[in-house]
Amino acid sequence: MRHSSQTQVDTRPRFKNYPPNFTMSTYKEVRRQVESLTVDEQLRLLEELAGIVRYRVIPKPKRSILELEGLGKEIWKGIDAQEYVNQERDSWNG
Fold first, then answer.
1. Does residue 47 lie within any of the structural domains?
2. Which has more confidence, 86 or 1?
3. Which end of the chain is more exposed for a tag (fewer CB within 10 A), N or C?
4. Confidence at 94, pLDDT banded by 50, 70, 90
5. Domain range holding 28?
6. Residues 39-52, buried b or exposed e (16+ Cβ, 10 A)?
7. Is 46 within a domain?
8. Would 65 be classed as within a structural domain?
């Protein structure tokens, strides 16, 4: 922010959990900084920014409990379900 004889109020948004004198850079300031980077640094920054944006805008697929159907079924092969439950219940009584 430029200093002049008149007092100016900084109205730029501030980040939460940062010191009061920490303000967000404007788009123009950031762009100027990016232009001062090497081409390799600009490409790296572009890739990182694309990853951040992609993560924010691509909806996460909802999962279903039904996806677990049949998982581990080979463990139970040849075991009678009722007999197993009865044995478990008997073990509770000592």
1. yes
2. 86
3. C
4. low
5. 9-60
6. eeeeeeeeeeeeee
7. yes
8. no
Cα 58 from chain centroid (whole Å): 11
Count of domains in the chain? 1
Q: Which residues pair with 23 in a beta bridge?
A: 14
24-59: pLDDT as tens digits: 678 888 888 999 999 999 999 999 999 888 888 878
Q: Compute the distance between CA of residue 15 and CA of residue 68 in angstroms, rounded to an integer.
A: 42
Contact 14, 22 (CB under 8 A): yes
Q: Kindly report the pTM of this predicted structure.
A: 0.37
Rounded distance between C-alpha atoms, residue 7 and residue 10, angstroms:
10
Angle among Cα 17, 23, 52 to the nearest 5 degrees reads 75
How is 62-74 classified by DSSP, letter by letter?
PP-GGGGTTTTGG
